[in-house]
């Protein structure tokens, strides 16, 4: 598969993740009387990954996330030479998804971004969690997400079920960590909405690049040992 096709798949996949996942939070989470709430938002993020894994997994691997690309590279599953183009495509896809969401959301009278599903800590954490709590949460959640991805896509695992395990894993991660950081585990997702929220979201964005990449890198190292055929 050509690199351009892989990058196109990553762009559209990340576009869908931000529009579907963050869109559920911005448009539907608290909709009067029938809002989907935290559970609905968590499911939306999981479903975006699950649906894209079946749609584009055979083209690009369906990373949709710079941290996933880093973890797969360190785990020996992804060529280092494609890392930067993948990350660029993912970030641009995230911004494009957030742009479409902004156009839709701003079509309502009295619209205010009100966080715009951005990730934050301290006063911008949904539950008021500290920077330390947010940092630990994002590292650990991304670590576990990559362990799930690396394990589910191992050649010894049932291939057809990998998207289900990964999508449900991301759903569970959101159920745990939305109150802490609004759940990132994905720098592209964080960058897309922060670009439109601006201000505090941009100033806190560093954590949602650092922590997911650290967690993913640790998982890549760990699974390289765990999944090896050596006794």
UniProtKB/TrEMBL annotation:
Site entry: Selectivity filter: 45, 174, 183, 189
Motif annotated as NPA 2, chain positions: 186-188
Domain of life assignment: Bacteria
GO terms for MF: water channel activity
Catalytic reactions of this protein: H2O(in) = H2O(out)
Site (Involved in tetramerization or stability of the tetramer): 22
Membrane spanning residue stretches: 7-30, 36-56, 83-105, 129-152, 159-180, 200-223
InterPro entries according to UniProt: Aquaporin-like (IPR023271), Aquaporin_transptr (IPR034294), Aquaporin_Z (IPR023743), MIP (IPR000425), MIP_CS (IPR022357)
Membrane association type: Multi-pass membrane protein
Keywords attached to this entry: Cell inner membrane, Cell membrane, Membrane, Repeat, Transmembrane, Transmembrane helix, Transport
Main location class: membrane
Keyword rRNA-binding on entry: no
Subcellular localization, as worded in the UniProt entry: Cell membrane
Membrane is among the record's keywords: yes
Ranges spanned by the short sequence motif NPA 1, renumbered to the chain: 65-67
GO cellular component: plasma membrane
Database matches in NCBIfam families: MIP (TIGR00861), PRK05420.1 (NF003838)
Subunit relationships: Homotetramer.
Family according to the record: Belongs to the MIP/aquaporin (TC 1.A.8) family.
Protein task: Channel that permits osmotically driven movement of water in both directions. It is involved in the osmoregulation and in the maintenance of cell turgor during volume expansion in rapidly growing cells. It mediates rapid entry or exit of water in response to abrupt changes in osmolarity.
Domain notes for this protein: Aquaporins contain two tandem repeats each containing three membrane-spanning domains and a pore-forming loop with the signature motif Asn-Pro-Ala (NPA).
Name the record gives this protein: Aquaporin Z
């Amino acid at each position: 598969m050509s690199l351009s096709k892989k990058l196109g798949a990553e762009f559209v996949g990340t576009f869908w993740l931000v529009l579907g996942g963050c869109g559920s939070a911005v448009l539907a989470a608290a909709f009067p009387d029938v809002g989907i709430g935290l559970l609905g938002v968590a499911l939306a993020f999981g479903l975006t990954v699950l649906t894209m894994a079946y749609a584009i997994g055979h083209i690009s691997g369906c990373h949709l996330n710079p941290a996933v690309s880093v973890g797969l590279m360190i785990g020996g599953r992804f060529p280092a030479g494609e890392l930067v183009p993948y990350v660029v495509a993912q970030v641009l896809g995230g911004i494009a998804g957030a742009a479409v969401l902004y156009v839709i959301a701003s079509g309502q009278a009295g619209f205010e971004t009100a966080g715009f599903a951005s990730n934050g800590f301290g006063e911008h954490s949904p539950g008021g969690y500290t920077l330390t709590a947010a940092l630990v949460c994002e590292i650990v959640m991304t670590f576990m997400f990559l362990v799930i991805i690396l394990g589910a896509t191992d050649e010894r695992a049932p291939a057809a079920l990998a998207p289900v395990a990964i999508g449900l894993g991301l759903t569970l991660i959101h159920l745990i960590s939305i109150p802490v950081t609004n759940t990132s585990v994905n720098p592209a997702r964080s960058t897309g909405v922060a670009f439109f929220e601006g201000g505090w979201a941009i100033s806190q964005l560093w954590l949602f690049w650092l922590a997911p990449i650290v967690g993913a890198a640790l998982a890549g190292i760990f699974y390289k040992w765990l999944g090896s055929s050596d006794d």
